Amino acid sequence: MEHYSIQNKFPGKPENSTENESKKGVVDFVFNQNPELAEIGTKEEYLHFLETIFPDSLLQNPVYHETRSDWFKTEKFSKEKIGQTDAGYYGKGFYFSTQPGISGGYGHNEFLSLLNVKNPKYHVDTYTVGKQILSGLTKQESKSIAVPWLEEQILHYEKELVDLKNGFIRKHSDIPSGVDFETYWENKRIETVKNVSNLVQEYQDQLKNIDAMIDEYYSHDGFLTSDNLANYEEILIREEDQIHILGSKDDLKKFGEFVENGKIESDPSASK
Questions:
Q1: I want to staple 163 with a disulfide (CB 3.0 to 4.6 A). Which of 70, 168, 262, 270 is the partner?
Q2: Where are the domains of the chain?
Q3: What does the pLDDT look like over 133-152, one tens digit per residue?
Q4: Residues 6+ apart with CB under 8 A from 152
């Protein structure tokens, strides 16, 4: 499976950026935000250092996270804080964007992170049971949310199906000119009966297989509405250890160790 590298794409850069411009964009952003990095090593060394973070991740380009304060300088992401602002568009978790400002309204502090994503789930539909599953942070919690939601959907559409089979249909659109009114709406009712019946069956099947569905969702480590990692704008991550914050206390410490080890290895006297 293809990896998407920070050397080929940097968030916020035009598509026609050269590879060198993309590299420069990564380190310039982080060094400008965190001047203390320059006291540890060079921008070139930092770029090489980033390549050692999550080397097996399918997602190699840094992504933005927006927040209200600069807690990311000294703290890490914490599951305890998930859901304090809202439930999230896909569900509960940590949200990251390929472009600055996409998650507008969550604060004026944006920073970059590298993510460890090896098995993402694509095509997450926010209007189906998938969002209900992602609204829980444990399998048990997900089931307690998804099952009542499915039961509610089944009850709602079964009632609608009764009305449709009894001849009632909501007439909320104009009919084409020259079409018989009664014929048009009768055909529309028959078509709707079929569609709603299929929907009820789909929800019933999901309810029957909810445990397997939850297991499948929990087998993934990233969630996107797009169909691949090349064209997404936002990704949901649910584990703290999948995130490396650029410019954080931990990042500075590891960069210092990287530079120190590199100097030792390049020093001929170090092996004596």
A1: 168
A2: 4-119+221-271, 129-217
A3: 999 999 999 999 999 999 99
A4: none
